[in-house]
Each structure stands twice: as C-alpha cells, then as structure tokens.
Amino acid sequence: AQSLPLPPEPRIFTVANQKGGVGKTTTTVNLAAALAREGARVLVIDLDPQGNASTALGVEHRADTPSVYDVIINDVPMIEVVQKSPESEQLYCLPATIHLAGAEIELVSLVAREQRLRTALDTFLDTFPDQFHYVFIDCPPSLGLLTINAFVAAKEVLIPIQCEYYALEGLSQLLSNIQLIERHLNPDLAVSTILLTMYDARTNLANQVVKDVRDHFPEQVLRTLIPRSVRISEAPSYGQTVISYDANSPGSLSYLEAAGEIAHRGAPE
Ligand code: ADP
Ligand code: MG
Predict the structure, then answer these.
(1) Closest ligand by atom to 31 CA
(2) Ligand 1 cavity residues, CB under 6 Å
(3) Minimum-distance ligand 1 atom for the alpha carbon of 226
C-alpha cells in the first residue's frame, strides 16, 4: 500500500535531544514503522548502546550479533549487518549491541572519527539494490562522538520535546552544538522537524509548553501532538512498535499522522 508521497532522494534524519527519556527512541521506531506501512522503504540506525530501538523493532542484538559497532569501528560494510524488522517488509534496522558503549572512547583515536557513519551509510545507500526513502538515526542522550557521527551522516535533525516543565531547558545548548556541526562538519544539516511528545491535554502545563515551543519554532513544529499513552509504552516489551501492536490506538494514529505531515512537507530546501 502506498499512500504517501515518496521523496526522490533518501531523507536522513538524526533524532536527537541530549536529555534521556524524552521519546527519541519511541519516535524513531514509530515514525519509521508508520512510513514503512505507508509504502516507504525505511532504515533505522540504532546508535544508542542501550539498543532500545533494536528491541522495539524486534531485531536480534545479543553481544555476538554483528552491529553498528562493527560498521563504525571495524569498517564492516553496513549491508552485512543490516537486518529486516519483522514489523514490515520495508523496514530495516542496523542494530546496536552492548559493544557500542566502548565506541565513544575507541573513536577518539580513529582517522576521520566524525565521518565514519556517513561514509558507511553513503556506500550502503549507493549499493543497496532498492532505494531507501527514509533513514532515522536514534541517538544516545549525550553530545559525544556517536551523536556527532549521526549529525554528520544526516541532512535533517528531528528533535522530540516532552511536554513538561523542563522541556526547553538544554535546547539552546543542543541548537548551538548543531550550529557548530553545520559550520565545521556538515553544511547541509538543518533542524527540520520538532515533535511534541507525551502530551497530556488535561494539564495546563502541557498546553503552555506546546504554546512556548510553537512560538519559538513556528516552522519546525509538527501540528500533530503525540499523546501520553500506555499502549505506546507497552509495545516495546512485545518487540513491536505501537503501529503493529495496537494499530487503531490514539498513539498509533498520532504517529501515522506525524509521518504523513513529514512526508507531505518534504525535505527542506
Ligand atoms: P529516549 O529515547 O529519549 O530516552 P524513550 O523513547 O525511550 O526516550 O521514552 C522514554 C520512556 O517513555 C519509555 O519508557 C517509553 O516507553 C515512554 N514513552 C515514550 N513516549 C511515550 C508516550 N507518548 N506515552 C507514554 N509513554 C511514552
Ligand atoms: Mg533512547
């Protein structure tokens, strides 16, 4: 089934926010599954040593599973490591294992340490027999070399923001880091998309955060709000996204709607 416009070139997103628990991984896997369901071919790169995206997409990521670590540190071609997610024929995942925890330190002494993911991804996209439409890179909650590799490999940054009191705290640091990357390492990078997550309509606070973020970033914020939903948080324990776990739940429908907005907006100029 194909119901959304497909981009002519792969759109490569880094999903970033140096805060933990704001919905980076949840957003990565559910947008990826939503776009795959609507006809796109999608790759998720799990760049967090926790491997939560790999878990949610139902792909193997035991310590001995070939992973993104081997790609970044040992130059193993991505095509040898990528797995298909049981979620969809169109959805692939480059898993993360516990070995990735050491990569941050190991990268320091490697040549072209900021470009390693980009080089591997470019080769993969050029040589894979079918065209990919979207790549989502799920980042760890830090601004270290793994996250820098993600910013260098991407063209767009997607920032999930939790609708709570400290939402905007730390955001200016994230944005100035992205500016540094843009200036020195990746002139093509743009913060194209902001998604408000864990929205609870009953609280005034959540509505205030929504208003503040929309005032600050009128171009980037998606209209769709992701509600706080138990179904969303339950899905990963079944190795599933909410899109397949409970397709008609409000959480699933909101991620499908956000995916539609992203597809219809297209890549930034
Ligand atoms: P991050 O990757 O930024 O650390 P996660 O995506 O892992 O954040 O989300 C943190 C926690 O919040 C997880 O337990 C996740 O299941 C839960 N969560 C994320 N989004 C929602 C939501 N919309 N409603 C309810 N729980 C959510
Ligand atoms: Mg995460």
Answers:
(1) 1
(2) 20-26, 52, 141, 197-198, 226, 228-229, 232-233, 251
(3) 23
Any idea which residue has 């890549």 for tokens? 267
| pLDDT digit string, tens, across residues 84-121 | 999 999 999 999 999 999 999 999 999 999 999 999 99
How much is the pLDDT for 2?
A: 62
Coil, strand, or helix at residue 137?
strand
Dist. CA 27–CA 265, nearest whole Å: 18
Which atom of ligand 1 has the smallest separation from the CA of 19? 3
141-165 as b/e, with b when 16 or more CB fall inside 10 Å? bebebbbbbbbbbbbbbbbbbbbbe
Ramachandran quadrant class, 137 (left: phi over 0; alpha: psi -120 to 50; beta: rest):
beta
pLDDT of residue 1: 53
Taking ligand 2, which is a single-atom ion, which protein residues have CB atoms under 5 Å away? 24-25, 52
Q: Write phi, then psi, for 112 (nearest 5 degrees).
A: 50, 45
- Residues β-bridged to residue 93: 44, 83
11-264 has which CATH code?
3.40.50.300
Residues of the chain with confidence (pLDDT) below 70: 1-2
Ligand nearest to the CA of 22: 1
Q: Where are the domains of the chain?
A: 11-264
Provide the 10 A C-beta neighbour count for residue 182.
16
Return d(Cα 16, Cα 25) in angstroms, integer.
9
| 161 residue type, one letter | I
User: Which of the ligands is closest to the CA of residue 233?
Assistant: 1
pLDDT value for 165: 77
**Helices 145-153, 100-107: crossing angle, 10 deg rounding:** 90
